[in-house]
Amino acid sequence: MERGDEPTSVVRRMSDLLAAFGPTDTALGVNELTRRTGIPKATVSRLVKEMEGVGFLERRGVKVGLGLRLFELGERASRRRSVREVALPFLADLREATRQTVHLAILDGTEVVYVEILPGRDAPWLPSGVGGRLPAHATGVGKALLAGASPQVIGDVLAAGLVRVGPRTITAPGPLVRQLRRIASSGIAYEHEESAPGVACVASAVRVDDGPPVAAVSASGWIGKVDIRRVGPAVHTTALSITRALTEGGDRDRRA
């Protein structure tokens, strides 16, 4: 192969690797990628590592899935899009029931990325925005996601430093870890002015199978105007409904 042809070959092979993921595939191993693409295993391993480095792929145990960078570039990251599409009617119902601002977010490293936001009436200013990021430890959705994450992910968050975002952001490892344990047990995460002044939030994770959460949903409003303890069950029910819809949709796809 001539040197001048190499960039085109690399781009084509990267495209083949991404195209190897079907509509229902959330993660594939190197051996399966090799089989589906016909690319030599050593080359697949090298490209997978490089694509992880730029966010085109993300590690999930011994396998990899489509990465968040694809979503941020507006390309087709099927798992991310499907979660939003499935969740949207449930999010709308939650906003109607609570009159609060509703979020759908996913975890990327030590941060959350907001996939969808439905503003509530008379909503407070919130630091979130669609496609925007916040430190996971400083948000309700982030804590809900971290509570179901692996010890390695939680360790990365602690190692990165718990920076202060709002007046009451948790900045000490011990209190955060203890709170994550309670969230893992109850399924509901609460936030009081941790992401912004005057803001209260309740969140719950969306989980599929036995893996880490694929997303989290929350309702946010003014402290003193929203009783998040009463809103909590509605948020939790919404997360469970989205989980059920994703699971049933996956079963239908596998039977097709």
UniProtKB/TrEMBL annotation:
GO terms for molecular function: DNA binding; DNA-binding transcription factor activity. Residues 69-248 form the IclR-ED domain. InterPro entries: GAF-like_dom_sf (IPR029016), HTH_MetabolicPath_Reg (IPR050707), Tscrpt_reg_IclR_C (IPR014757), Tscrpt_reg_IclR_N (IPR005471), WH-like_DNA-bd_sf (IPR036388), WH_DNA-bd_sf (IPR036390). Gene3D superfamilies: 3.30.450.40, Winged helix-like DNA-binding domain superfamily/Winged helix DNA-binding domain. The keyword Transcription applies. Residues 8-75 form the HTH iclR-type domain. The keyword DNA-binding applies. PROSITE patterns: HTH_ICLR, ICLR_ED. Pfam families: HTH_IclR (PF09339), IclR_C (PF01614). Keywords: DNA-binding, Transcription, Transcription regulation. One of its GO terms (biological process) is negative regulation of DNA-templated transcription. This is Putative IclR family transcriptional regulator.
